[in-house]
Design a protein that fits this description.
With 308 residues, the chain is α/β, with parallel strands linked by helices. It has two domains: 144 residues, 3-Layer(aba) Sandwich (Rossmann fold), CATH 3.40.50.620; 150 residues, Rossmann fold. 42% of the residues lie in helices and 17% in strands. Strands 3-2-1-4-5-10-9-6-7-8 form a ten-stranded mixed beta sheet, sandwiched between helices. Strand 1, helix 1 and strand 2 form a beta-alpha-beta unit. Helix 4 runs parallel beside helix 5. It starts with 16 loop residues before the first strand and ends with a strand.
Length: 308
């Protein structure tokens, strides 16, 4: 049963699962996944399609005579995409309240705007989620600039392009203040799914010695490993008390956070990461690890943004 958190608009009982669609195979997979999530969490489903008419007319401006015909074609296509998506969602989740939105905005603008009060924003790892958008720019813009949680539904090419439905929830812990939101989201997901939580921390570019009051230059590898395990345990302790039913496995590695999490994604049902890199630069809105995972992981990836 969904519990309402009055201080968090993303967890109000009215907060919908928002999904972007464009008729592609990746979009269809994300739509079905989002409909199932909405049904499981007892939430409404909001289906969006962005036509990017402003961008379209800008591109075709020099051919003014063709603009109305092209715009009409794009509108007709958008209506067909959104109608089909609604029918698919009703088939997957017949008891879920469903709303749709066909917009002149770009896919990225539309999804980012609706993320403010969404339970989660869901999009596929292929397709454009709009008309003339580019996969990379749309996906990365939404994961970088949306509010709350964004879930990129990735399939596993080594398993017939199926979506993982079993395995642990895997959390990337980077030690940054922004990462606290990801820790909370990962525990909540593991509890909802009845899954084990694997907390992965790579200490190579997190100066654990600084937290221990020592200069890491003078610490041995063994000392750093012990220190990082202790810091990881401390970061998770409060959440383990809040979610005593969640079994937690801690993994500490020396190098390559993106590579380690990609490896875990082969057996995970969900990977959860924070939206920013551990350096904390506000201009770098999507960290390099998150950037790599939303494009290359073998399971769905949740990118969590801290509350504003």
């Amino acid at each position: 049963m969904t519990q309402q958190r009055f201080e968090d608009p993303h967890h109000l009982v009215s907060a919908p699962v928002v999904v972007g669609v464009d008729g592609s195979a990746g979009s269809d997979a994300a739509l079905r996944w989002a409909a199932e999530l909405a049904a499981e969490r007892e939430r409404p489903l909001h289906i969006l399609h962005g036509m990017d008419l402003v961008g379209l007319t800008h591109v075709l401006g020099v051919y003014e005579v063709s603009v109305p015909a092209v715009v009409d074609t794009v509108r007709d296509n958008g209506k067909a995409v959104i109608a089909r998506a609604e029918e698919v969602a009703k088939t997957v989740a017949p008891d879920v309240p469903i709303t749709v939105n066909l917009s002149a905005d770009s896919a990225a603008q539309l999804l980012i705007a609706h993320s403010a009060d969404a339970y989660a924003v869901v999009l596929g790892a292929t397709g454009t989620v709009g008309t003339f958008g580019h996969l990379g720019s749309t996906l990365l813009a939404v994961t970088a600039h949306a509010e709350g949680s964004v879930i990129v539904v990735r399939t596993d090419p080594e398993a017939g392009n199926r979506i993982h439905t079993s395995g642990p929830v895997v959390l990337g812990v980077d030690g940054s203040p922004a990462g606290e939101a990801a820790i909370g989201a990962a525990f909540a997901e593991a509890a909802e799914r009845g899954a084990k939580l694997v907390a992965v921390h790579v200490w190579s570019d997190w100066k654990g010695g600084k937290f221990a009051g020592a200069d890491p230059v003078w610490m041995s590898t063994d000392d750093l490993d012990v220190t990082e395990h202790a810091i990881l345990a401390e970061r998770l302790a409060g959440w383990e008390e809040k979610y005593p039913e969640v079994e937690v496995v801690r993994k500490v590695y020396a190098t390559d956070p993106a590579g380690r999490l990609r490896e875990w994604s082969r057996t995970a049902q969900l990977v959860v990461v924070g939206s920013r890199g551990r350096g904390g630069f506000t201009s770098l809105l999507l960290g390099s690890t998150s950037h790599a995972l939303v494009q290359h992981a073998s399971c769905p990836v949740m990118v969590v943004h801290p509350a504003k």
